[in-house]
Specification:
The structure is a homotetramer.
Chain A (H helix, E strand, L loop, with lengths): L2 H25 L8 E5 L6 E5 L12 E5 L16 H10 L5 E5 L5 H4 L22 E2 L2 H4 L10 H11 L4 E4 L3 E6 L2 H24 L7 H11 L3 H14 L1
Chain lengths: 243, 243, 243, 243
């Protein structure tokens, strides 16, 4: 088999995996009709794969498009892309360590984006990757106070990537959250457990002062969990297929 | 094809679309056994389509009746209509810009109808159409303090339409919410995201003071979202069909 | 057809309806593996029908037993009955107007049973039958402070019926709720909307002071809703059948 | 039939039952992609059965492994085991009365693990087995403040078993909960109702001061409920099979 057919086969597999990622994220309550998940091109670090503009529950491998990091579709005259593809391009550009990005309107997470002084942080070991704080991207700082809150160009994408920094997740005020992973499965895993940790943290705060994970606990736990991602992926894939 | 058959075909299609709207609203948790959704007649602005008195989950195109704006059934001796059809007739009469109306007992929304001083407003960009305030219709002001809370005649319908004004939604104290849209799909979209925004807002208020969208953000975001309605509709339709 | 075959046919139909009531109450989140629903015998006011001791989701017409109001099985050597059948017998004895009883561990309702000073009351018109207050049965007043909280004999059943009085529902501290209806469908309807109203009321109380229905509103709304029960029943039956 | 074939048949049955326990716990919202449930070997009190490292929803009888109480797999070169099998071994070692153990990240329970001064306790008779307090295992006391929070060796398992003492459940700070039962079905029953009671308790605390069960009520109710476990198991098994 030539290198070219190798790459083609890897791409085919990755498109199918990306379709599954969409279905898992819907099934787990992270995505609804909106939000999207991307993965870096396996052969070209300056490209990424992302579904065409459609509801995630219905995405198939045939709906996956290829983009450069500026958010331009590689193949001209293709179907309509997501308006916010710049999230994916700019985050992947600024984070060589990241291979995948999930952007969602995760319902338990958004409340933490609109309240100051209550940082979303690791209170459950499943959310340990969040560490002691999750940055909030305030789009007003870049786009003024009359934007549509969307990451609709590269400048906004770069600003968002700036807020994200080296963190696994960045909240977007009044909008949602963007999560990265070293693999597609890790990004999905983190997106699911960001929602889980947010719900636990909000519920715990109503009971009283909360003991969060220490930095040492968060790092150690995150390292351990990283080895368990396939277990979750396989289980979630089966659940998603039943729906 | 004559104009008459054109209209007949358009009507058939719209009845099927209205049945789908019912199923989506149940599937998305906006309607339960109660609530209803109407659409203005495509050929006659003084008429609207609405299911007969039945649970929304079971509505088919054959269950759709035609009414004038006074809430009179166009075809005599038909099946029993919804008691509150006057919501639809009077709101459509007062709002030439509206083509569809959803009335629901949306569970996260009702709490905002019974508490004063905590206006339901856009805190999430998906709820941006709500703007900075959602009016509350207090039926006691029209019907006194011993009514059954229902919009059971044209006078109450007009009073409700008066509270709604030019807004996309009006809360009904102790009862529910009525939402309008420039299309059937927009009304459904807004009904789903009114519930979503209410849940986010209530959860955020428990964490601390909430940063809501500015008026400029709300307008800009609402304009953008209006172009994404088909994405949501298509995804929801598939989900509803699986149930 | 003789009277005897008439009654037999009516009984068969009622057993099937009672099985459906069980499935609806599970599907609507009122019953889980526990709780039960009874209906008075159509031909004999001093008897009632109730499933044998089993999870409600699995009840079929063949699982329905017949009891006298003392809670004795009419047919000897039958399968094991529910321990708390005395709820049904004594409530039906004390309430000639009631034809059916639902006892559940309805999750949004139980919190109101363990907190004093926050009466469960009609804040939504769907819960209007609750009126301005729901009594709480404190079993310690009858059984002392070391009981198993269950209505395990006729004396406790009578005490519960005493707390219920002429109301549609009585909370049972730390245990659940018992609801009556003039028909089986009304009892099911009220059980579903007791849960609904409790959730709305708790959520509203977290936002601020709540405007409840006036007594006049509650009566008028309850009277209207009583005519809409079949709509809900038919929709719920279809939903339950799909699970 | 010889004793050996007797034991083999009993083991086969128990493996199937353990697979069902996994499915019930997922279906009831106690386990997600993580957590596990074990049962003591029917013929050897120093061994236990536990699935290989995989998502609980997918476990079949063929995935069940056998371990000694030190957490060593009895059959060499088998598939990868759960990292936290030491929970099961050490708890079963310290509790001769326990035949089964559930470890979960039960979402309504975790908040009680990270807040001091609000003990998880019986407020609902279905949670009566919890009594007046649930101990919290603080792993920092054993492993210092930079652990990954997991029970990854026998020493940590022993420390957890020490916190559990003679109780039915022990919370694990920032992690989850471990529950024991005199039978597999009782452990499953308790895991489901620990989640249920936690949700009720948290919701009730938001309404006002809560009346919990007395010690006498808790003991009496727990004794009664122990006789109703098969009812729940049979209902839950049917529900889990439908998913």
């Amino acid at each position: 088999m030539t290198d070219a057919t190798d790459t083609a086969a890897a791409l085919d597999e990755l498109r199918a995996e990306l379709a599954t990622a969409n279905h898992i994220l819907v099934s787990q309550g992270v995505l609804d009709a909106f939000g999207h998940v991307s993965v870096r091109h396996p052969g070209r670090a300056d490209r990424f794969l992302l579904a065409r503009n459609m509801a995630p529950a219905s995405v198939t491998a045939a709906d996956i498009l290829e983009f450069d990091l500026d958010g331009n579709a590689v193949h001209a005259n293709g179907p309509k892309p997501y308006l916010e593809r710049f999230i994916h391009g700019e985050v992947l550009r600024s984070r060589a360590d990241a291979m995948a990005v999930v952007h969602s309107h995760s319902p338990a997470v958004i409340p933490f984006s609109v309240v100051r002084g209550v940082p979303l942080r690791a209170v459950s070991h499943m959310g340990s990757f969040l560490g002691s704080d999750t940055p909030i991207f305030e789009i007003r700082d870049t786009a003024g106070d009359a934007s549509d809150l969307l990451i609709r160009d590269n400048a906004l994408g770069r600003a968002l990537a700036g807020s994200l920094g080296r963190k696994p997740a960045v909240l977007m005020r009044g909008h949602g959250v963007t999560v990265v992973g070293a693999t597609l499965r890790e990004a999905v895993f983190r997106a699911v457990y960001t929602e889980f940790n947010a719900r636990i943290q909000a519920d715990a705060l109503r009971l009283g002062p909360v003991t969060a994970l220490t930095d040492g606990e968060a790092s150690a736990s995150a390292a351990t969990n990283a080895s368990q991602i396939d277990r979750a992926w396989n289980g979630w894939r089966e659940q998603a297929a039943k729906r």
